[in-house]
Design goal:
Layout: E1 6-8, E2 28-37, E3 40-48, H1 51-72, H2 84-89, E4 96-97, H3 100-115, H4 125-140, H5 150-157, E5 165-168, E6 173-176, H6 189-200, E7 206-209, E8 212-216, E9 226-231, E10 240-246, E11 248-255, E12 260-263, E13 266-269, E14 285-290, H7 293-304, H8 308-318, E15 321-325, E16 331-333
Antiparallel strand pairs: 1-9, 2-3, 3-7, 4-6, 5-6, 7-8, 8-11, 9-10, 11-14, 12-13, 14-15, 15-16
Helix pairs in contact: 1-6, 6-7, 7-8
Length: 343
């Protein structure tokens, strides 16, 4: 799964002042951290009258995210659950009965596949798995790191059409008609799950799942925005490129600086260009700001594999904003991105 890294910069604690003789209970800031969701770090930050009240809310969010995590997992089986791995395991066979949450995700994936002309393709798992295996082997044994075989990539690329994914809403089933096609929902699933959870959560929370940051509303104590830091791609540079101010909506970054490995002194990251079958070479990082976390997740991947002009066309279609960082560290903004920066 794709890792997008955005550090949270938390502002000072504020409390409400009462003007009547009996003041309302003060709300304090609390946070909860979980390590078991989507193979990354999850943080939930909010305000409550007591830690017990906040932890109850955080645990409920954790439990709901855990259900999405298990349903969207492509690596592990779970008792009594038909998940994405189950669908992959049955490729070329009969339809698989799945939870509505799986159908909804894959319908969203199909929409983004069509809208991005295949730049976001969750049916490209056959190609992505070759890079995943090569990266893991290279990390484990750097001296013998190697690229996937070109012939294997080309052969896998012949089996990446989303048309092979048959979604039957009425029957509640998913079928992969090509036995060589594999789903990999890492470009969308995490953000999609965060968005669904955010829509059902109280206003005034900040939810971060591996850097997919979503604010469900301004801070309840003073209606001020949350502050989200965008990490610099260069370890030797300043820690944050910007701090963004967001009242409601999502911030997601895709970059080449977290999930990568080295081969003969060259960095190979995890965001694969569907045209070349190799890591995209346009940008060091792309940060998206928009209302929907699932859409932000998908757009950050799509824009990473596109030039600025084509990327801007996608942003305009979805009323989103972006910041691109190129190979020289130059920052390029969409017209409305500066609205989230305070100087």
């Amino acid at each position: 799964m794709k890792t997008r890294v955005i550090a949270l910069v938390l502002a000072a604690i504020m409390v409400l002042g009462g003007c009547s003789s009996v003041s309302a209970p003060e709300q304090e800031r609390y946070e909860a951290t979980f390590m078991t969701l989507f193979d990354t770090v999850t943080k939930i930050v909010g305000y409550a009258e007591s830690e017990e009240a906040f932890q109850a809310t955080a645990q409920e969010i954790h439990d709901e995210l855990l259900e999405y995590h298990q349903l969207y997992d492509i690596y592990k089986d779970y008792d009594g659950i038909n998940n994405i791995k189950t669908i992959n395991d049955c490729a070329g066979g009969e339809p698989v009965a799945v939870d509505q949450k799986v159908i909804d995700l894959l319908m969203f994936c199909r929409e983004l596949y069509e809208a991005t002309d295949g730049r976001v393709n969750t049916a490209m798992g056959s190609v992505l798995s070759l890079w995943h295996d090569a990266r893991n082997a290279g990390i484990d044994d750097p001296e013998n790191s190697a690229l996937p075989e070109a012939d294997a990539l080309n052969k896998a690329a012949e089996h990446t059409g989303f048309e092979a994914i048959v979604i039957d809403e009425k029957a509640g089933t998913i079928q992969i008609t090509d036995p060589e096609v594999r789903l990999d929902v890492g470009a969308i699933a995490k953000g999609y799950a965060v968005q669904r959870i955010a829509e059902a959560s109280p206003s005034g929370l900040l939810i971060s799942v591996g850097g997919n940051v979503c604010a469900t509303g301004p801070k309840p104590v003073d209606e001020s925005p949350w502050v989200v830091g965008v990490e610099s791609p260069d370890k030797g540079a300043e820690e944050y490129l910007h701090t963004l101010y967001v009242e409601k909506g999502s911030v997601v970054t895709s970059g080449d600086y977290q999930r990568y490995y080295m081969v003969d002194g060259v960095r190979y990251h995890h965001i694969i260009d569907p045209d070349t079958k190799y890591p995209a070479a346009y940008w060091r990082s792309v940060t998206i700001v928009c209302e929907d976390s699932g859409l932000a997740d998908a757009l950050s991947t799509a824009l990473f594999t596109l030039n600025q002009s084509d990327g801007q066309a996608l942003l305009d279609r979805y009323h989103a904003e972006a910041m691109w960082v190129d190979a020289d560290g130059n920052q390029i903004y969409s017209p409305g991105f500066s609205n989230f920066i305070r100087t």
